[in-house]
Here is the input.
Amino acid sequence: MFGKKHKIQTQLDPDQLERIENAQRRIKQKKRLHTHFILFLIVGTLLLVGNLFLKIGATYTYFEIDWSFIVILLWVALVIYHTINVYITHKFMGKAWEKAQLNKLVAQQENRIEKLKLQLEKEELIKLKSANYSTTKAITTQNTSKLTIIAAAAENNVIGKDNKLIWHISDDLKRFKRLTNGHHIIMGRKTFESFPKPLPNRTHVVITNQANYNAPDGVIIVNSLEQAIKACKNDEQPFIIGGGEIYKQSINIAQTIELTRVHDSFEGDTLFPEINSDIWQQTQTIYHEKSEKHKHAFSFITYVKR
Ligand SMILES: NC(=O)c1ccc[n+]([C@@H]2O[C@H](COP(=O)([O-])OP(=O)(O)OC[C@H]3O[C@@H](n4cnc5c(N)ncnc54)[C@H](OP(=O)(O)O)[C@@H]3O)[C@@H](O)[C@H]2O)c1
Here is the structure.
């Protein structure tokens, strides 16, 4: 117990440690400059006294200047160089350190923004689930379902061109996958044909006028929107997933629209119908900035029929 030295446990994080080390280095730098200056004053005075008053080496001159002046001039230059070094070129902690700190700060902020986005999306999901719950209750008594349109439309309402999507927004695809997972998805024949193969874990209901339309096993083929909705009677939330013709026919009977509004205008041949704000109430909007991952800014907007 007595006489034993206790080790002090340092609990500093690496950043704090770095700052302390930098501060210590800085103190040493200034001390060295200070010592240099004092030394210069003392030795300079001694040189002058020795040379001019005691006449030491009085015969040594360069260009008729006493040697002590030349030595002092050279030394002044050295002291100035040292001062510049300490106060200008090697300022406290240096530029590289400042840049590293800035990068760290930016990375931390980006991280935080990502977390906030995730949190918002989780909250959105919880809201949707609770809305689903109340609709499920209605389904059991009224045998109706919460028909939801899901679409991505540009500012000018364009949704596609040459039977293809125009943009690639990976977060939108993820959201589409998350919301429709396990549900029936109703679509026009052309939209169905724009997929390379049916989407996993979803029941496809394809609307066509063709009597003997050939589709892979598991895909339900119907000849009208009414038949499509009937085919989903056991699903609490079937989704209308497009394209333009089907959106136009279903916007009056759907209860919810999950729209991804892409904040740009595009040329295209297929449009999403106008959303009438007298009929549709916007209940949630989540804005996403343009980023390295996403070429266009976009918003996830939920509309519910008033
Ligand atoms: N951005 C988005 O969110 C999104 C989503 C989906 C699709 N899209 C895009 O939209 C475009 C496709 O849309 P679209 O309007 O051209 O085609 P569509 O709506 O996908 O399909 C139209 C076809 O559906 C059938 N149909 C439509 N109404 C019908 C009815 N009442 N009864 C029976 N059959 C009916 C007809 O098929 P038959 O000709 O076989 O009779 C018709 O030709 C593509 O560019 C696609 O990429 C965009």
